[in-house]
Amino acid sequence: MSPTTRTGRPRGFDAEAALDRAIEVFWRQGYEGASLSDLTEAMGINRPSLYAAYGNKDDLFRLAVARYAEVDMAYAKEAFAEPTAYAVIEKFLRANADALTRTDRPAGCLSIQGGIAGGSDGGRVAQFLAESRLAGEAALAGRLARAIDEGDLPPGTDPGALARYVMVVSEGNAVHAAAGVGRASLHATVDIALRAIPGL
């Protein structure tokens, strides 16, 4: 459910803009570290408005992750439209390196930082984020499998293993970006990673 379709949502504030501010809080502090007070203050709303528009904290986090995937990771869908497997992987990894180091967003990646810290939820949030990342990996594997069928990748290439490799590079870059590693260094890692893509 989107924040604009929940029944009884109070009017008077921009639900998507407020959700974008919630994304930043979750991104910087993680799910466990983001208190309801932190969230409502950043979003510019009170708790009743938060509950009416988004549900509870867990619902809000899931909406934040979905919007993050739609907006901040729009480059992934664009990369999948590239004509060759090499171009798909290169565009994905380079756009990812740029996204991880945007000056108008926290460094790193919400899907990594949002659930790094363990908490009182029994690992539910970390599992949700892991499943989200695996869904992206599966989508990439599907695109690479198509490349094999089209003769763009060598026969015998394992699309799942190649997709996993690409995601490991992406996620590793996210951890390093959060630690302060700069864009140029992330792109240097991408340069090396691209050499591993099987050629015909």
TrEMBL record:
Q: Which UniProt keywords apply?
A: DNA-binding, Transcription, Transcription regulation
User: Which InterPro entries has this protein been placed in?
Assistant: Homeodomain-like_sf (IPR009057), HTH_TetR (IPR001647), Tet_transcr_reg_TetR-rel_C_sf (IPR036271), TetR_C (IPR011075)
Q: Cross-referenced Gene3D superfamilies, in alphabetical order?
A: Homeodomain-like (1.10.10.60), Tetracycline Repressor, domain 2 (1.10.357.10)
Where does this protein bind DNA? 35-54
Does the record carry DNA-binding as a key word? yes
Domain of life (superkingdom) = Bacteria
Annotated HTH tetR-type domain residues = 12-72
Record-given protein name: TetR family transcriptional regulator
